[in-house]
Amino acid sequence: MSDRTPADRFLDAAIDLLQRIRDEEAESVAAAGTLLADTVADGGRLFAFGAGHSSLAAQDLVYRAGGLALMNLLVVPGVVGVDVMPATLGSALERVGGLAGVVLDSSPLRAGDALIIISLSGRNELPVEMALKARERGVRVIGVTSVAYAAQTTSRHPSGTFLKDHCDLVLDSRIAVGDAELTLDNVPAPFAPASTVVTTALLQSVVATAAAVLADRGIEPPLLRSGNVDGGHEWNARIMDEYGDRIFYRH
């Protein structure tokens, strides 16, 4: 009988997934980081979108210490996070056709910008349409998804396609269909999802790459510092003043 606790097993599973994306997604991470760096250097803006729990990884990129100040959250009302009541409404909105186009029409996104779209399954209408419509506008799209869903589930988009089919670059989180790492004989459902920790780490590795690429080109990466260290607020004020026309989360 193994003495490994469920906590041990979950952490081991998460570590294994992190090692997989480190080894198997290295080229994609490098390409995505370079795409972000190119966008910054060319005067473009950066945006991130995710629905439901996928929005957690998008929010993790925005206005945070050590992150790129130019990363903006693309908000779809009722879909970002689980604060909408009832929470099931957010899931329903992901399956509403036409919503992505309306959101993009009202957003500051324009040709030459970069948009990260995060959807674990990549099967719902909203993220697929978001990628399609964004690219029609000349926006470069990085999709973050589990490619396994395309092989093991059906698309909910009328085209029958998935998020991965409409991106300039795809980052595969390698999360198994169902997003639950553990099972126990006396627990009727699989449990312990790892998609948030893995997707967040995957995207932070992209940001790290972008910062290094910019620095290698002689461009200071527009990074934010913690407001809880001496001089942090002054640093951030300088960055926000310099890049204020590309930052949309402040008024």
Structural class: alpha/beta
Q: How many strands?
A: 7
* Mean of pLDDT: 94
Helix count, DSSP H or I runs of 4 or more residues: 9
Order of helices and strands: HHEHEHHEHEHEEEHH
Describe this entry's structure for a reader.
Belongs to the UPF0309 family. The longest helix is centred in the C-terminal third of the chain and has 22 residues, at 195-216. The protein is α/β, with parallel strands linked by helices. Helices cover 42% and strands 12% of the residues. Helix 1 (6-24) runs parallel beside helix 8 (195-216) and helix 5 crosses helix 6. It has helices spanning 6-24, 26-41, 54-59, 87-93, 99-105, 125-136, 148-152, 195-216, 232-242, and strands at residues 46-50, 71-73, 114-118, 140-145, 169-172, 182-184, 187-191. The protein has nine helices and seven strands. Helix 7 (148-152) links the parallel strand 4 (140-145) and strand 5 (169-172). The mean pLDDT is 94. Strands 2-1-3-4-5 form a five-stranded parallel beta sheet, with helices on both faces. A two-stranded antiparallel ribbon has the order 6-7.
Q: What are the defining features of this structure?
A:
5-stranded parallel beta sheet, 251 residues, two-stranded antiparallel ribbon, alpha/beta, 42% helix, 9 helices
List the helices and strands and how they pair.
Elements (H helix, E strand, L loop, with lengths): L5 H19 L1 H16 L4 E5 L3 H6 L11 E3 L13 H7 L5 H7 L8 E5 L6 H12 L3 E6 L2 H5 L16 E4 L9 E3 L2 E5 L3 H22 L15 H11 L9
Parallel strand pairs: 1-2, 1-3, 3-4, 4-5
Antiparallel strand pairs: 6-7
Helix pairs in contact: 1-8, 2-8, 5-6
Protein name: UPF0309 protein ACFPWV_20590
Pfam families: SIS_2 (PF13580)
InterPro entries: RpiR-like_SIS, SIS_dom, SIS_dom_sf, SIS_GmhA/DiaA_subfam, UPF0309
